[in-house]
Specification:
The complex is a heterodimer of chains A (about 130) and B (about 230). With about 130 residues, chain A is of the alpha+beta class. In chain A, about 35% of the residues lie in helices and about 25% in strands. Chain A has a single domain, classed as Jelly Rolls, CATH 2.60.120.10. In chain A, strands 1-8-3-6-5 form a 5-stranded antiparallel sheet. In chain A, a hairpin with a 2-residue loop joins strand 5 and strand 6. Chain B is of the alpha+beta class and about 230 residues long. Chain B is about 40% helix and about 25% strand. In chain B, strand 8 and strand 9 form a beta hairpin. Chain B starts with about 25 loop residues before the first helix and ends with a helix. Classes of the chains: A alpha+beta (about 130), B alpha+beta (about 230). At the A-B interface, strand 1 and helix 5 of A face helix 1, strand 1, strand 6 and helix 3 of B.
Chain lengths: ~130, ~230
């Protein structure tokens, strides 16, 4: 796989369903994250890069830019209890980011690696226990 | 616009692996990395990770070059290292659980694989070979840094710049005649050597007058590498 999900996850998971799960288990998801402080103008991720995981950000402190034809695109983001989750759709569908995310001001960024995220989702939905 | 959706090389078939810390992993372990890694193409000037941020994982260079630099309080950069294909980045911070000590910026378009902290930790727990090879690389890095520290305190600016040009040439992907010491601005060279830009310009002019080097824009051709080696000694 690497840049895309493995077949099972790509078929079984839907961004909306995962967003719903995230909304109900936000604190738990945040507990899995690694917190970084990005300074103003530092890049969180680049346009056309494949997702390494999920980012929970303060919506007012992150802006989205494009270097080229992506300027008309919108970044997939989901509002959840004061946070915005970036790149869930890209991660689940195995697509690259459409825009570059940049810190508009000094801000905390909470990152959950994709392996950690999908293991957690599997535990939450019981997929792991069914498989074993 | 160039497509980023390149065909990804699996770790087992990666030609750069033989040079790196993953050279002795089993097929099963390599496929474990394949399932969790993310490969991305970074353009020149793009940043892989920032100094002061906690380590999210390690980065393995498949192609291209990066520079590692630290910023002073005044905002001036000091290059503390360079890396090329097959090298691992960020493992020092990951293993010590300390923030990244330097910012890593791409100097030549690079394909870089990201392996998250969890995956690498699991592999380190399972593979004594990997743990040993990572320890070896850490030791080599330490020895290299000790040499650099000695160079910085004991060698002249001319010797340090000669050494840097030779080092940059060793990162060159193709063996060209004459060898090329990559594309770097005078300011970047100054930061790497630890002198002012003016000093770099003066020394490069001396090298040019002596026909040791020639310039092609920001590229530096090494016309007489053996003379540079003498100057660097």
């Amino acid at each position: 796989m690497s840049n895309t999900l493995d077949g099972r996850l790509a078929v079984d998971r839907h961004p909306l369903g995962l967003a719903f799960l995230l909304g109900h288990h936000l604190e738990e998801a945040l507990a899995l994250s690694i917190t970084s402080v990005f300074k103003r103008d530092q890049v969180i991720f680049y346009e056309n890069h494949w997702p390494q995981g999920l980012y929970f950000v303060d919506p007012e402190k992150v802006s989205f830019l494009s270097d080229g034809p992506g300027s008309g695109a919108s970044q997939d983001k989901i509002n959840l209890g004061g946070f915005v989750v970036l790149g869930l759709e890209a991660l689940v569908k195995g697509e690259p980011y459409r825009l570059r995310a940049v810190a508009a001001d000094d801000t905390n960024i909470y990152f959950v690696p994709k392996t950690v995220f999908f293991s957690w989702i599997d535990r939450l939905t019981g997929v792991g226990s069914q498989a074993s | 616009m160039r497509s980023y959706n390149f065909r990804q090389v699996g770790c087992a078939k990666c030609p750069k692996r033989e040079k790196g810390v993953f050279c002795r992993l089993s097929e099963k372990e390599l496929s474990f990395i394949d399932r969790s890694k993310t490969a991305n193409v970074y353009r020149r000037g793009q940043v892989v990770f920032y100094e002061g941020n906690p380590p999210l994982g390690v980065y393995c260079l498949f192609s291209g070059r990066v520079k590692l630099y630290k910023l002073s309080r005044e905002g001036n950069g000091q290059i503390v290292g360079m890396a090329g294909p097959g090298e691992l980045l960020g493992h020092e911070s990951l293993l010590s659980n300390e923030p990244y000590a330097a910012t890593t910026e791409v100097t030549d378009d690079a394909t870089i694989c990201f392996i998250d902290k969890n995956t690498l930790t699991k592999l380190l727990e399972q593979s004594p070979f990997l743990a040993l090879d990572v320890a070896r690389q850490l030791s080599r890095n330490l020895l290299r840094l000790e040499d650099k520290l000695q160079d910085l305190t004991q060698k002249s600016a001319t010797a340090r710049l000669a050494l840097l040009l030779l080092e940059l040439n060793s990162y060159s992907a193709a063996q060209l005649a004459p060898p090329i010491a990559m594309r770097f601005s005078r300011q970047t060279l100054a930061e790497a050597v630890g002198v002012t830009r003016e000093t770099v310009i003066r020394i490069l002019s001396q090298f040019k007058r002596r026909k040791i080097i020639a310039s092609q824009g920001q590229r530096i051709l090494l016309l007489q590498p053996q003379l540079l080696e003498k100057l660097a000694a």
